[in-house]
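Practice problem: predict the structure.
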Amino acid sequence: MIVGAIAFYLFAGMIIASAVMVIAARNPVHSVLFLILSFFNASGLFVLLGAEFLAMILVIVYVGAVAVLFLFVVMMLNINFVELRQGFLQYLPIGGLVGLILLIELFFVIAAGITDPEVVALASAPIPPLSDLTNTEALGQLIYTRYVYLFQTAGMVLLVAMVGAIVLTLRQREGVRKQSIARQVARTREESIEIKTVTPGSGI
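Answer:
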């Protein structure tokens, strides 16, 4: 029990410290590396809770794909971070207001979860033994039955975020040839093929 408590506080402290360093680090590459460290410690907390499947998913998906993608994007894009930080103080009041609103909403969500009898009963429900129900099966039944609409809503939010990121980063450059599906489909045989009659011995 003492070892589990020490491991919990160790992982939790590392997550908080690495999350602060993600924001405070001046080098964006260091920020991504601290983000990877926080993901690893979060997977350690999942292991302590007995959710090995979530721990492996967090390491494989977020560390192996998302965080590495962030690292490559930061390293490959020529972004002037000094220029981006110049307007930090200008947007600080708005950012602080948004952060305060999110903090208040989070407080109300936690308070409602503590005082709701259904949430308390669900948290105190006995966990079935692993021989009857594995972590993966239990997670799948919970996501695709009780929280299926929230799961689909989260997918739609991620889709809108992906489309928004593509639209924001799309640049119109002159002199760059782009693919036009409509023009390709509308092409006829006469426009695409030209038959040449080559006589023998008239090569280069």
